[in-house]
Specification:
Length: about 230
């Protein structure tokens, strides 16, 4: 790393030896290295693999950037790897739980079934990692719930909420009113909620927001009009 606190700038890169420090880089990195006040830093112990080094590099770039530091990198490590927006996954970083600093009110929901989702994997079904597309997580969100049969014809929306958090909306899908509420087996009343499009997990832009005015329990809950 080349660090210059006067310029509030840093270069972060990977090298197999100290000789790389003084070899050719892009122009911005070389100017930073040679500028008055710049210091050159390295990890005390080498990484066990380039793959691990790339992970550490991406994390360092991400942290430096959100701290307001101007970051220089080699062309082979584009700034897109830093994942500043925190919405989609890059080759290294992805949002553990996608969040927005906004909230919607439970009282505003209509025709909605709300399902609680723990952060861990469940019996082989995926954890709610925020970097995946909607379809990857939809199968867990829509199964295996005791949804009251009398309420099913009026349900038009399913919201998955994070358990143990701040009622973060993990996903939001439109329910297919003509779909089949398939039973898991003849021995259970648990069903799979039919979705119009499993990939569309944020049709109203509410994914990542908090759901205020509502308390989760161990099973499904509903919007006020379905109670």
């Amino acid at each position: 790393m080349y660090e210059n606190r006067r310029q509030n700038s840093i270069y972060i890169g990977i090298a197999t030896s100290m000789a790389r420090v003084y070899q050719r880089h892009n122009e911005a990195a070389e100017q930073l290295r040679d500028a008055p006040g710049s210091v050159i830093l390295q990890t005390v112990e080498p990484f066990s693999s380039r793959r691990d080094a790339r992970k550490a590099e991406a994390i360092a770039i991400h942290v430096a950037t959100i701290a307001g530091t101007q970051v220089c990198t080699d062309d082979e490590v584009p700034l897109t790897n830093t994942n500043i927006a925190g919405i989609h996954s890059t080759t290294v970083l992805g949002p553990a739980i996608f969040t927005k600093d906004e909230a919607i009110q439970w009282s505003s929901l209509i025709g909605t079934v709300i399902v609680p989702i723990a952060a861990d994997e469940l019996e082989g079904r995926p954890a709610p990692f925020g970097g995946h597309g909607g379809a990857f997580f939809a199968d867990r969100a829509r199964k295996h719930w005791n949804v009251a049969q009398v309420k099913r014809p009026r349900i038009r929306r399913i919201i998955a909420l994070l358990k143990g958090g701040l009622n973060i909306i993990l996903g939001d899908w439109d329910v297919d009113p003509e779909g089949d509420w398939t039973l898991d087996s003849v021995h259970t009343t648990r069903v799979a909620v039919p979705l119009i499009d499993a990939e569309r997990d944020d049709p109203r832009g509410d994914k990542g927001k908090r759901l205020d005015g509502h308390h989760l329990n161990s099973g499904v809950t509903y919007s006020a009009d379905l109670k």
